[in-house]
Amino acid sequence: MSRVAPTLDFSVEDRVGHLVLDSPPRNETTHALFQDLARLRRDLLAGLDLAGMIVYGRGRHFSSGADVAELRELLRNCQPGRTPAFLTDNLDNLLALEQLPFPVVAAVNGCCYGAGLELALACHFRVAAPRAVFALPEVSFGLMPGCGGSVRLTRLVGRARALELVLTGRSLLADEAQTIGLVDLLAGRHELLTTARRLIHALHRTSGEAGWRSGPRARGRA
Amino acid sequence: MRLHYEMRGDLGVLRLHNPPHNALVSPVFAARAELAAFLAQPELRGVMVVGEGRHFCAGANVEALRAAVHGDPRELGASMREGQALLELIANAPVPVVALVRGSCLGAGLEIALACHFRLATPNALLGFPETDHGLLPGLGGVLASLGVMPRARALELVLSGRLVRGEEAAAFGLLVDRCVPAGRLEAEGEELLHGLVASRSASLVHEVVQAVQRATRLGHEEALRAEGEAFCRLASLAAERGGEEP
After folding, report:
1. What confidence tens digit (pLDDT) does each residue in B219-233 have?
2. Which of B58, B164, B217, B236 has the fewest CB atoms within 10 Å, measured from its CB?
3. Are B128 and B224 in a shared domain?
4. Nearest chain B residue to A77, by CA
């Protein structure tokens, strides 16, 4: 593993990138993490010939979401009608991740909350261990998802379920997440990365790079 | 057909009223300004759409529909557009809207139910698009709305065949019906669903979330994402005004 940034690890194995959220145990989606992600994309990913990329968290969790104290600080001077730069950056960052020219698979173990789930939602596929837990708990702070969570969730699971999950902030386990279409594949905790890698290679074999490039943006959006 | 407006506590009730089947004599089933004003009430926390009596809405009255089809095409076009505008008002409501479906829910009736965010139905309710039997298709946005709640193949099958399905079957495929509920519990479950969603949430939070989700079904991807970011900021500045408790 090469530590490319304080909060991220990145390595390549058999043409598959491994992007690791690397501030265990919570792997919070801090401002620094998003900045590191932007740098990684610009400096490293652009020049690599990858078949796909797996995104996962170091240790027991994918990510617990925002660092609440930091978020409070960042939002201190938030004005209605003026989106602060950090939020626009996060949004552009996830949009760019979504538009990478190869499949990106989130491999989810443990907690996948808030902006952590928004990051997983910007990936093209989600593979989860049975004990993975998903939630958008922003409402309990009087807030809502701000990095595309409500939009991407709605497109994935439909208006009714998205409304319910965003408004209540309730958490769901991997099997329910799979039933509603939030998770694509379930895999044992220790088979997560293998399953993600297999998915990437299968996509590569069946659609090839050209096929994939014309694919993700053309994928159905409800 | 008249749309009756009621308040039950903080929940609004829209009652389709033309017994016994609540058939529509025109796609314009309500006055737009009246419906808009009702949905914009600041104290409103959620809305239930129901039919008077034993049926939700059996769709267009066949004689009225035939007359409209053979009448002035410009008039038909204008009334269809107005009907669509009414359904968009319901779909874009700033609070959650649930359709409580019993008896017949056909054609335009199903289109009204599909404009709602949620659908609860009795196991025996009858849902479907019989338009093709008359050489027509659902014209109030029902085809598009179907694609939001079920796979494309299923939507095609329902619209092309005109097959009617029971509530029980509808609940088994996708989100055409979110949940089946015994007839005697329909309204109580509707109230519980809405209160469960909005309880302990501020009005502005509910409005922002409902509209962000709705935008995801109406706007282009990037536009919807940017709008969500702006909504987040509006809530953040409200939270900041309330004092440092919330982030």
Report:
1. 999 999 999 999 999
2. B164
3. no
4. B237
B111 is catalytic: yes
Same domain, B51 and B123: yes
Name every chain B residue with its beta carbon within 8 A of the beta carbon of A88.
229
Classify A2-218 by CATH class: alpha beta
Contact B237 A146 (CB under 8 A): no
Q: Quick: pLDDT tens for B177-191.
A: 999 999 999 999 999
Parent domain of B168: 2-198
A-B C-beta contacts closer than 8 Å: 144
Domain with residue B23: its CATH number is 3.90.226.10
Cβ–Cβ contact A122 with B under 8 A = no
Q: What is the domain partition of chain A in residue ranges? A: 2-218
pLDDT at site A46: 81
Of the residues A28, A73, A118, A164, only one is catalytic, namely A118
Residues B31 and B136 both lie in one domain: yes
Q: Are the Cβ atoms of A154 and B229 closer than 8 angstroms?
A: no
Residue B246 placed within a domain? no
Whether residue B188 sits in one domain with residue B209: no
Q: Which of A28, A138, A164, A191 is catalytic?
A: A138
Q: Write down the ipTM of this complex.
A: 0.90
**Distance separating alpha carbons of residues B92 and A150, to the nearest angstrom:** 15
